[in-house]
């Protein structure tokens, strides 16, 4: 079943002589349970496409469908609710709050979702256990290593039991050993929980581990490859 469908989406930043066409008509289907890598050079439009698919931004033209529903027709509050309940994010710009505890950081999506305090704690602890950080729940987020921080971000992405995880260069700032652990964690979530993965990466080796690679150049899909099963 199709989880997300983008139909001929376009996005332009700026106006008139400053206009930059970041996406020039992109169409794409992502199936439930699939793992998809979006690959391309810097400036090719990867993050812009990811933001549209993740309902963090809206296209100037074209449509995004989530579970066969055209998102354009929905009210903003409905879109926010859908995003909060279906999606988990592992984005570099969604920083942890360094002064708050690891547990508080992971509970944030549940606070936004209106989950009661006792249930919030229970679920956040379970998510932290899943990423091997049970012993760090009370630490301040600042007092963790880079790899541990990234695992907290994954726990926070998981805590809502999302159907889809979006990740933007999730291993970009990590050493190769820690990066490998974080990669494995994402693929395990796909295998064990059936979570769909949509990841932006520059790294060809990482991209090769996904079911499908989508290559962007100058705001258009120029190639698609499937990894042999
Ligand atoms: N808010 C904005 N205003 C103006 N131009 C923008 C804006 N956001 C992105 N762009 C431009 O759109 C193009 C695509 O940006 P995007 O971030 O999608 O690329 P990317 O492929 O993710 O690049 P990178 O790998 O460097 O993150 C770039 O040329 C960028 O400069």
TrEMBL record:
This is ABC transporter ATP-binding protein. It comes from Leucobacter coleopterorum. Residues 4-229 form the ABC transporter domain. It holds the Pfam family ABC_tran. Keywords: ATP-binding, Nucleotide-binding, Transport. GO terms for molecular function: ATP binding. It comes from the Bacteria. PANTHER family: ABC TRANSPORTER ABCH.1, IMPORT ATP-BINDING PROTEIN. The keyword ATP-binding applies.
């Amino acid at each position: 079943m199709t989880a997300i469908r983008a139909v001929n989406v376009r996005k332009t930043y700026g106006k008139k002589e400053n206009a930059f066409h970041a996406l020039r008509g992109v169409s794409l289907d992502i199936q439930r349970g699939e793992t998809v890598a979006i690959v391309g050079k810097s400036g090719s439009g990867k993050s812009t496409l990811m933001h549209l698919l993740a309902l963090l931004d809206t296209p100037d033209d074209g449509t995004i469908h989530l579970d066969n529903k055209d998102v354009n027709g929905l009210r903003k509050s409905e879109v926010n609710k859908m995003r909060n309940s279906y999606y988990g994010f592992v984005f570099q710009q969604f920083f942890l709050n360094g002064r708050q505890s690891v547990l508080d950081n992971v509970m944030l999506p549940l606070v936004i979702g209106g989950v009661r305090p006792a249930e919030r704690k229970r679920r956040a602890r379970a998510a932290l256990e899943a990423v091997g950080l049970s012993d760090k729940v009370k630490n301040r987020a600042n007092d963790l290593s880079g790899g541990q921080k990234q695992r907290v971000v994954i726990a926070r992405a998981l805590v809502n039991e999302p159907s889809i995880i979006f990740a933007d260069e999730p291993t970009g700032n990590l050493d190769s050993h820690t990066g490998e652990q974080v990669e494995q964690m994402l693929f395990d979530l796909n295998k064990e929980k059936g979570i769909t993965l949509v990841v932006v990466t520059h790294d060809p080796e990482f991209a090769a581990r996904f079911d499908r690679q989508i290559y962007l150049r100058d705001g258009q899909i120029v190639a698609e490859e499937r990894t042999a099963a």
